[in-house]
Amino acid sequence: MPIVHGINNIFNLYFFLIILRIFLSWIPSIRWELQPWQTLRQITDMYLDLFRRWIPPLGGLDFSPIVALIVLQIVQNIIIYGMMSIVR
After folding, report:
1. What percent of the residues of the chain are helix, what percent strand, and what percent coil, each to the nearest 5?
2. Contact residues for 1 (Cβ-Cβ < 8 A; gap 6+)
3. Does residue 54 sit in helix, strand or coil?
4. How far apart are alpha carbons 72 and 83 in whole angstroms?
5. What is the structure's pLDDT at 40?
6. CB 40 within 8 Å of CB 17
């Protein structure tokens, strides 16, 4: 079970990093080319860009992170519950 908890924690950490990225994007004075913001942006944007390609901004608002978070949660649940059924 420790492996299942570890993988679950990785999903939760990534979810938190995406939320942090979303909130920081509302601060116009953030200099994304500096650390640690550059690393945060690189880690999260590789996933978020998958959804940005398919979901264009509407009225200046980017809804793709919402869809990305929902998909991340669905994948997390499928993997964790699948692993738990195998471990039992």
Report:
1. 70, 0, 25
2. 84, 87
3. coil
4. 16
5. 97
6. yes
pLDDT band at residue 1 under the 50/70/90 scheme? confident
pLDDT of 81 strictly over 90: yes
Reported pTM: 0.90
**In the chain, what is the straight-line distance between the N-terminal and C-terminal CA atoms, in Å?**
9
Task: Report the C-alpha gap between 56 and 86 in whole angstroms.
Answer: 39
Contacts of 14 (CB under 8 A, 6+ apart): 43, 44, 47, 72
- Per DSSP, the three-state class of 61 is strand
Place of tokens 């264009």: 56
DSSP 58: B
Q: Would you kindly state where each structural domain of the chain is located, as residue ranges?
A: 2-87
